[in-house]
Design goal:
Number of strands: 2
Oligomer: single chain
InterPro entries: ARM-type_fold, GUN4-like, GUN4-like_sf, GUN4_N
Strand order of the largest sheet: 1-2
Largest sheet: 2 strands, antiparallel
GO cellular component, one term: outer membrane-bounded periplasmic space
Number of helices: 13
GO molecular function, one term: tetrapyrrole binding
Shape: globular
Organism: Thermocoleostomius sinensis A174
Structural class: mainly alpha
Protein name: GUN4 N-terminal ARM-like repeat domain-containing protein
Distance between the termini: 78 Å
CATH superfamily of the largest domain: Gun4-like
Length: 248
C-alpha cells in the first residue's frame, strides 16, 4: 500500500490563504474600533460566523477593551463566547471574565451573579424575575416577604446598586433595556405615563399587556420594554425608579 502523505501546509497557496484570513480578521477588528454602533454589532456577528478564527478575534477584541468601560458591543461579543460550548471559549472567559464584563458592585453585598448569567444567556424572562428579587433584597426583609416594593424603599436604594442592575440590562440587550433607557423614553414622552406605556409596549389602547405571555422576552421588543414594573398599585414605584439620583 502506498504511503499517504499529509497535505503540505507550507505551500505558497496555503500561506497566502492564511495571510488573507489574518488580514480579514485584522480589518474586522480595526473597524470595530471606528464604525457606528449598528455596524459594530454586525461586525461582531460576522466574527461569530467565522468559526475558530472569529472566536479568537472576539477574544482579542474583549481583551483589548478589558481596561475600559464595557458597552453593548462588548456585551454582544461576550454573549457569543458565553454561548460557545468549546473548551477554548469557556477557558478564556473563566480566566479573564469570571464574573462577566460588568463589575457587580453593591453597597449592600447583593450578589448579582445570577442576574448577570441570565442576561448573558438572553433569558430575559428569568432576568426580569431576578431583577425584582434583587430590588426586594435591597429594600430589606419585609420587601422580600411581600415580593413587591414601596416607593419610599426605592428612594433609599444605593446609587451603586441601581447602576449595576441597569448596566447589566443595557450591556446585554444592545442598549434596548434598562431603567435609564426607560427614563429616556419617559422624558421624551414629556413624562406622560400613558404615552410611555404605549411606547414601551406595556399597554395597547385601553388594554394592559398581560404577564407573562403577552410581553416580548427578546430583543424584538420595543425599546425600554424591560425590566417590568407592576402598575397595579399606581405609578409611584416606577416614578421613584426613573427619578432616582442614579441617573442624574
Amino acid at each position: 500500500m502506498p504511503d499517504v502523505q499529509p497535505p503540505n501546509t507550507n505551500t505558497p497557496e496555503s500561506r497566502s490563504t492564511e495571510q488573507n484570513t489574518v488580514d480579514y480578521m485584522t480589518d474586522l477588528l480595526d473597524r470595530l474600533k471606528s464604525e457606528s454602533v449598528r455596524n459594530q454589532l454586525q461586525l461582531v456577528k460576522q466574527l461569530a460566523e467565522s468559526g475558530e478564527t472569529g472566536r479568537k478575534g472576539l477574544m482579542t477584541f474583549l481583551l483589548e477593551r478589558s481596561s475600559q468601560s464595557m458597552g453593548m458591543i462588548e456585551g454582544a461579543a461576550y454573549q457569543i463566547l458565553y454561548a460557545d460550548n468549546t473548551a477554548e471559549a469557556q477557558t478564556f472567559l473563566q480566566a479573564h471574565f469570571p464574573q462577566g464584563i460588568v463589575p457587580l458592585h453593591s453597597e449592600r453585598d447583593i450578589d448579582y451573579t445570577p442576574l448577570q448569567q441570565a442576561l448573558a444567556k438572553q433569558d430575559f424572562l428569568t432576568a426580569d424575575r431576578l431583577t425584582l428579587e434583587k430590588l426586594c433584597e435591597l429594600a430589606g426583609e419585609l420587601a422580600i416577604q411581600r415580593k413587591w416594593l414601596y416607593f419610599t424603599e426605592v428612594e433609599r436604594f444605593p446609587i451603586t446598586d441601581l447602576q449595576t442592575i441597569d448596566t447589566l440590562w443595557r450591556v446585554h440587550s444592545e442598549g434596548k433595556f434598562g431603567y435609564s433607557v426607560q427614563r429616556d423614553v419617559w422624558l421624551g414622552a414629556g413624562k406622560d405615563w400613558e404615552k410611555l406605556w404605549t411606547q414601551i409596549g406595556w399597554k395597547s389602547g385601553n388594554n394592559w399587556t398581560r404577564y407573562p405571555n403577552e410581553f416580548t422576552w427578546s430583543l424584538a421588543a420595543p425599546k425600554g420594554h424591560l425590566p417590568l414594573s407592576n402598575q397595579l398599585r399606581g405609578v409611584r414605584v416606577i416614578n421613584a425608579l426613573l427619578s432616582h439620583p442614579a441617573w442624574q
